[in-house]
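Quality-control log, excerpt.
Job 1 of 2 completed; input and output follow.
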Amino acid sequence: MHGSATPSLKFYVTVSDLPSVQRILGLITGRAYQITRFEAEEAGAGTWRLALDCTADDRDADLLEARLHRLPTILRVDRRRGLSLAGTG
């Protein structure tokens, strides 16, 4: 039996330093959304770019985005909707 579709989201985050990458990993661990991909790469001048894919409803996605914006070392957060993933039950 198939369940409802789960929205897929992509977050692109730029942070000012490597410890911020570690803070974001801690922030997303054990939350209501499922992380399907996490990638970090140095962007130069000490900054890092993160790509984060997750499945979450709008409420959880809004909460994640708000949590990211609260970190003082976050320079930019972009959120994009991906494809919906069919859930099975």
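Job 2 of 2 completed; input and output follow.
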Amino acid sequence: MYLTTFSNQDQALCHLFFHCCLEDERFTEPEMESLSGTLVELGLQPKLNIKDELVSYRSYKPSITDETAYLKFLLAFINPVNELALYSYCVELCISDPTLDPREEALLTKIAEILEIEPGIGLIINKLMAQRRAVQLQKIF
């Protein structure tokens, strides 16, 4: 189903970000705000109808039977040049709600592996993004 969903990289990136936010089956207010901010920051919001993309994502999400194949498809479509930056956005979206679900941790591990990010570097990025989130929430360094 999702094989015919994308016509450009921006859509694939948007769906990857939805997948990061919805991996734990919840789409909380902080996640929506974080996702909206990210889409605006990256300049995707004027190019895409985010509501339509979310409806599209939700329509095929139940049919994803092999998450690794889905992620490989998305990431191949995106064809990132700055894979560490892309990974850091995924981490940021996964931790935008108060808890990091084990499914989200597994998702981040899969994304890092597909992007060929060494485990040690992936852990550093995870820790960096978690600390940045803590600073944002607690306003202390």
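Post-run check on job 2. The chain has a mean pLDDT of 90.
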